[in-house]
Amino acid sequence: MQTETFDRPLSFSALSLHPSLLKALDEAGMASPTPVQQQAVPPALVHKDLCVSAATGSGKTAAFLLPVLHRALAEAAGKAGPFALILAPTRELSRQIYDQCRQLSAWTGLRTELVTGGDDFKSQQKRLRQKPDLIIATPGRLLELASQDTPDLSRLRMLVLDEADRMLDMGFSDEVLAIVGRCNPERQTLLFSATLNHRGVKGIADRILQAPEIVAVNTLHEAHAHIEQQIVLADDPVHKQKLLAWLLLNEPYDKALVFANSRLQAERLQGPLRGQKLRVGVLHGEMEQKDRNRVMTLLREGAISVLLATDLAARGLDVAGIDLIVNFDVPRNAVDYTHRIGRTGRADETGRAITLVGPGEWNLMAAIERYLKQRCQRRTIKELEGAYQGPKRVKASGKAAGSKKPAAVKKAVAEKIKKRHRDTKNIGKRRAPSRKTPESAAE
Ligand code: AMP
User: Fold this and answer.
1) Which atom of ligand 1 lies at the shortest distance from residue 12's CA?
2) Looking at residue 227, what is its pLDDT?
3) Least C-beta-crowded within 10 Å: which of 155, 179, 275, 374?
4) Of residues 332, 395, 335, 387, the one with CA closest to residue 361
5) Ligand 1, from 32, 34, 193: best to mutate by most atoms within 8 Å of Cβ?
């Protein structure tokens, strides 16, 4: 690990970037570098490997695109196959990186290809044979293509892994390592992750980075200073539906994103909200790519103002003007919570994130607040105040005190343990479960 320090320039011109990049930054209204750009760009420009923790919304995409584009220009890219490969976990995130890359490279003459599952394999192969300078891809499809030798990565100069933590959580570790195995060992590698405190990320960083510079900015709780976070208690799912409709009809917002923990739940919410004359769309991982693109265009253009989404489908979404997030279900962990609320309050805009918390979700929400070292404001909607007011007493951790599990729950837990014992005995007698969830089928 390197300890060398780099200056933190306050303007892009002080970063000594290529003039065509400065022109594009100016046109994009990006006047000064964000903290992650200040810290990551200088070491990246001198070819150091980087291991960066930066939350979404921090400007992390430009933090790797700028050094990639600068180096590609300085070293006359494209002559010997792709100069850089950028891997991202989902199609949506890849598309957003691609869009930002097109914007930043507008004056460079560099060519970028986007390669994700869901698009025609043969036409991707054909486009890759034209030797683009940069490739932005999801791991599954890229590996399929590279296995047939297009693209040839043996002379690649830069490799970027964006949202490495999620890429590993989605089960892409084998694909990523197989792709790295095909890359030029002399390349520079930049790894970006929401957290570096992730076993898988530490493991992969040790294997693929050489003497990396560690850049840790925007730890989970610092990143969301300009997002107002609130909790509204709910009695049950029916009460939650009423609260959701009320919020979407009464809160001031331009675009709202509503998160559910499952595809089914997201789809179920659609009908009742449409019944309230709300303009609603759904985004989940099992949708066809063309349907996903369509719903995103509707949101961007304002034809719908509410998007119901699941975590993986919404990962990396960057739509300007999302100023309200509603968590219909409490997310499964603090990292998902952070990613959800990071869809608003981007690049210094302000936003509001409201989580609906039912009786069975109190402890999970308390754990998330504790992990993030943040306490969300408690809010009551007077018109819809429910019976549930939270636990009578809470422990120092914020969790409910003395909440004994009811007999039915104890019985269910005992059943589960018994079943696990039975399953353990049967290991080897059944097929291994699929490694990826259906939603992760980003290929
Ligand atoms: P990211 O964290 O890369 O998803 O970026 C979040 C948003 O911030 C994107 O919409 C970027 O266009 C925007 N952005 C990135 N860098 C800057 C900057 N230096 N100044 C203003 N906006 C920026």
Assistant:
1) 19
2) 85
3) 275
4) 332
5) 34
